[in-house]
Design brief:
Helix content: 25-40%
Radius of gyration: 29 Å
Strand order of the largest sheet: 1-2-6-3-5-4
Order of helices and strands: HEEEHHEEHHHE
Structural class: alpha+beta
Shape: globular
């Protein structure tokens, strides 16, 4: 017991000296972070007569090509009180056109080992596909065709509206805190700015009032292309995209 008490007293007496020694110790020099060099992207850029901006990046390390089409329209452009139109038309763009049947975009990509998808955000709607590079031209035609001659009728509209409503139920309403982040948070964050409109609230979409074969007016569009291609192979024909 006496030895324990002595040890405690000695430890307490040495504490000021330990603290002083720690303060006197020189600070270690901060380790220098290695500089990360990012090579600039070697891309080409051009604008077609109809305003379509085309960006292309050549990548010879792959035999695939990636095509993306970005429309400068999103949920912030939905009519007041009727949110979900941008998301709805994202779905409709995978249906029929003047020259393509429903779901043919899937056949042009998945049947050759590729894939496709799309997304809707506040500021944009984008569509993207990855396919073997030798299928690039027919894919560009398909993108141009659904851009210019999308067919929207009552049957297709009603079917896709139910699909979008189910996405709302499963991804937002059934998700923990889903309504908080997707619906309530935008509403309380903005009072005037169009970002207050949630991109996923598709249940409030009304029935179409356009003609059966009409598509929405075309907004500004960007088409990035990131393929393995020869300089002769990449050519977007203006006649494909004049709609």
């Amino acid at each position: 017991m006496r030895l324990t008490r002595t040890a405690l007293y000695l430890s307490a007496a040495l504490l000021p000296f330990a603290a002083q020694a720690q303060q006197a110790a020189p600070a270690a020099a901060p380790a220098t972070q290695p500089q990360i060099a990012v090579a600039p992207l070697n891309f080409t850029e051009r604008t077609l007569p109809n305003g379509l901006k085309v960006y292309a990046v050549r990548d010879t390390s792959t035999a695939n090509v990636s095509v993306q089409v970005w429309y400068d329209v999103g949920s912030k452009d939905d009519p007041a009180g009727k949110s979900g139109f941008a998301h709805m038309f994202e779905h409709l763009m995978f249906k029929g056109t003047k020259n393509l049947v429903d779901e043919q975009m899937d056949r042009l990509t998945e049947d050759v080992g590729g894939y496709n998808n799309a997304s809707t955000n506040s500021d944009y709607t984008n569509y993207f596909e990855v396919v073997p590079a030798n299928h690039l031209e027919r894919l560009l035609f398909a993108e141009a065709d659904r851009m210019a001659s999308l067919v929207v009728d009552e049957k297709v509209f009603a079917s896709e509206r139910d699909v979008v409503k189910e996405e709302l139920r499963s991804r937002v309403l059934a998700s923990p805190y889903g309504k908080l982040f997707y619906i309530y948070f935008p509403n309380i964050s903005y009072s005037v700015h169009p970002y207050a409109a949630p991109a996923s609230a598709a249940s409030r979409i009304s029935t179409p009032r356009r003609s059966a074969t009409s598509a929405p007016s075309t907004p500004p569009i960007t088409a990035p292309i990131m393929p393995c291609w020869s300089s002769q192979a990449i050519s977007i024909r203006p006649s494909w995209t004049n709609g």
